[in-house]
């Protein structure tokens, strides 16, 4: 079966066609990053406007890449939330219009379910599994007993991992989004600066990054007042080491405790090389556990992941009506 995925929750206008939930037939992403860069973050009003301009072009390009006609599509999967309401609405309305005009079944998808199902485009899921979701707005450990069932066993109590990356990058005067810049700098520096690790209470799988972020900002500020220089690459390496240590440490603990068959990495921060490398290394402690990491292009926002998740939901019989609406705070 062929599923058309549509994703407009944030600053990427994306559409994709996925065959049998596994195979990418077409995958188009129009990023608006440049328009938001000078504001140092995503401006919701600008995002909506770009989506309106891009959505038809992106859908046309997707059909062209696939060399398919809309009549060959078995279902349309669209991100219904969470995200920016004005941005989500553009995708939801485009999906509804297509579904209505061509009488194609419609499925609403949770954006984070999409990030997790990006892994299904790499490797078949084996249950039970544990997904570490690290993105611009989320940091969660999610336990899955079966397809489509998500149990959040840990989450951030303050900033998301990506948010912390972006804020620390800003403090280091790096462009937005800062994650990739810190990742690159970290490789050139040494983790010589003492920064906290937020392990929280014994046995907790929750995360916290705001203390670490404040420690970075304070350390930079104090050094500046004393006329000392801190190499940005050393700060990047120190920050990244702290983030990765806690993310990987808690993931390994949870994977052992829940006796999972697979660990999946998901979300934009999954593109982080330090995280990928450390997780790969640490998973070796658990020889029965298979680690799946999507390629970089499937870590950040895309519609192939929405189509992959939508395929499973469609096969489980889930359908949306024409009353489908954007839900900015949709729960998983
Ligand atoms: P959400 O999925 O929670 O709604 P989002 O869709 O905005 O949020 P993603 O697109 O999944 O988030 O991820 C974007 C985030 O990933 C940004 O914060 C960005 O800095 C971060 N990021 C991207 N590449 C890297 C990298 N190599 N290292 C660290 N962070 C990265
Ligand atoms: Mg984005
Ligand atoms: Fe995302």
Automatic annotation (TrEMBL):
The keyword tRNA processing belongs to this UniProt entry's keyword annotation: yes
Domain Gcp-like stretches: 23-307
Note describing how the cofactor binds: Binds 1 Fe(2+) ion per subunit.
One record GO biological process: tRNA threonylcarbamoyladenosine modification
Residue numbers binding Fe cation: 111, 115, 301
GO MF annotations in UniProt: iron ion binding; tRNA N(6)-L-threonylcarbamoyladenine synthase activity
Main location: cytoplasm
InterPro entries per UniProt: ATPase_NBD, Gcp-like_dom, KAE1/TsaD, Peptidase_M22_CS, TsaD
Binding-site list for substrate: 133-137, 166, 179, 183, 272
Protein name stated in the entry: tRNA N6-adenosine threonylcarbamoyltransferase
Source species of the chain: Anoxybacillus ayderensis
Phylogenetic lineage: Bacteria, Bacillati, Bacillota, Bacilli, Bacillales
